[in-house]
Records
---
Amino acid sequence: MSDFTVVDFFKRFPTDDYCLNHLMEIRFGTSFECPKCKKHSRFTKVQKRPVYQCQWCAHQISPMAGTPFEKSRTPLQKWFYAMYLFTTSRHGVPAKELQRQLGVTYKTAWRMGHEIRKYMTNVDGDNQYGGHVEMDETFMGGRKRNRSPSYKRESPFKGKTIVYGMVERDGKVQTYVIDKRTRKTIKKHVDAKVVAGTVISTDEAPCYQFLEKDGFEHGTVCHEHDEWVNGIHHTNTIEGFWSRLKNSIRGTHIHVSKKYLPNYLGEFEYRYNMRKSPKWMFERLLGAF
Ligand SMILES: [Zn+2]
């Protein structure tokens, strides 16, 4: 998947100091105007401490400040390697696997995974959607439908989380956890993200019925009547994303709670959105700090 192999990784980041130096370079550079003495200065690493110091006034800068590494006792190289694993795996990295590969506790591995997912979500950034966009919702998590009589009146969606998503054909995907499938909720996201005049394909759910009135070229397919394609309209792209997402989460993680679901979604969006340039995934993630 990536041209950046494990061997390449350890060649480039053989020690914690190499990682720290990389962090310093991408965050501040090593030669700039000192914020304290205002002279143009070269900052050099202080022995045995993770800080860099001004050549004139000894003012110190920590490249880890404000990053998840700052308060972590896990060495920087392990963090970098964990990020490497996240960007080179196809289905995500379970905490158990991180624990095994890094030699850290399960709790630490679990926390690292969540910090990395947060960054993957942030790097993906704020895109606008245009051209031809597909939208759909899906249900994730919760307990399995129980068919025993005492559960008969229970909704099949009980305990599940609604995820709404939009994908540009041949472009990027963006998902949201939503509380209700209402026009108001969908409209809020459409107004924020979708460029005027965009062609939009959905199913016949009532929550999408404002789109035409709002000036979009809206077409639908009626899945209940076994209609999957209607001219240029179908929702196969977004449905493909849902099924890959669900398979990956099911195969990789034991349980994903509603609280952390947005982070997992962010991770999978990142991977999908970077699919055409997998070798930049790790670089972009490193650049995010
Ligand atoms: Zn200075």
---
Amino acid sequence: MTHDHKFFSQLNCPKSVTWTSDIQMMFTPLDIQHMKTKGIDLSSYQDVMINAVQIYSRVKSGSMPPPGSGEQPWSDEWVNTFGCWIQQGCPQG
Ligand code: HEM
């Protein structure tokens, strides 16, 4: 695993992050539609929680959403917020 427990514990997280208030809105209808065929439902709290570290690695490296998909890579702020959600134990809110 590229990002381990120690990595997430060291992120700077000034505010609390929840699925309902912060994370759910980060996934577009296009993300959801395309990734459903790959076995990850990005509209599902359960699926995103289970795959959170893998998703973090993809959005941080910029490999997802894919260049050329018509979507922008996530900003550093979004990547950090997602990492903070992992640090805080993926609360649903
Ligand atoms: C923020 C949004 C997205 C996230 C977090 C995400 C996450 C991921 C993850 C974790 C995988 C590996 C899953 C596996 O191999 O079973 C993957 C694969 C893939 N995703 Fe996404 N995805 C996103 C958006 C998209 C979009 C918008 C498209 C297409 C327009 C797309 C197309 C693909 C394809 C083709 C693969 C398989 C090939 C590869 O690994 O590069 N994804 N994605």
